[in-house]
Structures are given as C-alpha cells and as structure tokens.
Design brief:
The chain has 185 residues and is an all-alpha fold. The chain has two domains: 75 residues, RNA polymerase sigma factor, region 2, helix turn helix motif (Rna Polymerase Sigma Factor, Chain: A, Orthogonal Bundle), CATH 1.10.1740.10; 81 residues, Arc Repressor Mutant, subunit A (Orthogonal Bundle), CATH 1.10.10. The chain has ten helices and no strands. The longest helix is centred in the middle third of the chain and has 23 residues.
Length: 185
C-alpha cells in the first residue's frame, strides 16, 4: 500500500483542477463530486504505480477521463434519469453576422457569468469540452492534453479550435446583449 502522506502531498494539490475537469465533463456538480471521489480512490489504489517526479495532475486527469468513459458506458447500458427541468431547449439560436471582439478562453471567462459559460460549455460535445478545458482552463500543453485524452496533438489542436469557435457562437447572443460585440481591445 502506498504511503498516505506521499499520496496526499502528490495528489491533493490537484484536487481543484480535477474537480473543475469533472464539472466540465459531467456538467453537474453532484456528478462531479462523485467522479472526483472515485478518481481519488482509484489514484490511491494505484499510487504505487505512479512514477515520482512525473506530472501528477496529468495522471489524475487521465484517471478522471477513463472513469468518465466508464461512467458513460455504464449509462448506455443502464440509462440515465433526467428531470424535466434539466431538458434542453428545442429551439436553436439564430445565426448572427457580427464579429465579437473577444476571441479566446480568457476573454470568455472574464466577460461572461459562470452560468452562461457553463451552459455554453455544456452544449459542446464531450471531446471538445474536455480538450478546451485542459488547454484553455488548466493551461496544459497540446501534448499533455493529447496524452490525457489519448489522441494525437494535432487532434487536440483541431478540437480546441472547433470548441473555441462553437463556444464563441453559442455566446454571441449574450455578448450582443452585454454590449461586448465590436468592442476593441
């Protein structure tokens, strides 16, 4: 069994990052808390195989990704329970021609309330949402994100680009309402 103090000093500093990634994946704080608990239990169980001096955050995020995939597979077999309040609106937003002055994740995070960004992020496909989160929020390199997601760095680059473009489009209406369109920096 791994030394509990070594595990705590290695894994616990990354608890917030793992939780944020879990929220980004699951879109629900309750599910995220459960995921994080499972991830840390698995990490403790497998801590003897962790190579000291390597990226513990990436290791934990890889466990999170694999746990999430297992959860999705389980849901396909069992099904999920969704309350009526959680349903998505059936009407799509109309396209808008105006260009936004904000162009990257930092601008999005600074200019939109959490609920609006969470909603828009929640509408992205899982692979794009995770990749965008790893690169833009956690600040991992494309190579690190590629290792975590199990795809080539080029795929990470294209997923990140597509996710940014989709997020920008999803937040366009709100940006217009807030007077953020056409603003120069």
């Amino acid at each position: 069994m791994a030394d509990k103090k070594d595990f705590e000093s290695t894994a616990m500093p990354h608890l917030d990052a793992v939780y944020r990634a879990a929220v980004a994946l699951s879109r629900r704080e309750e599910d995220a808390r459960d995921l994080v608990q499972i991830v840390y239990a698995k990490a403790l169980e497998r801590f003897a195989s962790f190579a000291p001096g390597t990226n513990a955050r990436a290791w934990l995020l890889q466990i999170l990704r694999n746990t999430w995939i297992d959860e999705l597979r389980h849901r396909q077999v069992v099904g999920t329970v969704v309350s009526i309040e959680e349903g998505r609106p059936a009407i799509a937003d109309p396209p808008h021609a105006a260009e936004a002055a904000w162009s990257n994740a930092r601008d999005v995070l600074e200019n939109f309330p959490d609920d609006e960004v969470r909603r828009a992020l929640g509408e992205l496909p899982d692979d794009q949402r995770l990749t965008l989160f790893l690169v833009d929020v956690e600040g991992l390199s494309q190579e690190e994100a590629a290792a975590i997601t199990g795809v080539p760095a080029g795929t990470v680059k294209s997923r990140t680009s597509r996710a940014r473009a989709a997020l920008k489009e999803k937040l366009r209406v709100y940006a217009k309402e807030m007077g953020l369109l056409g603003r120069s920096r």
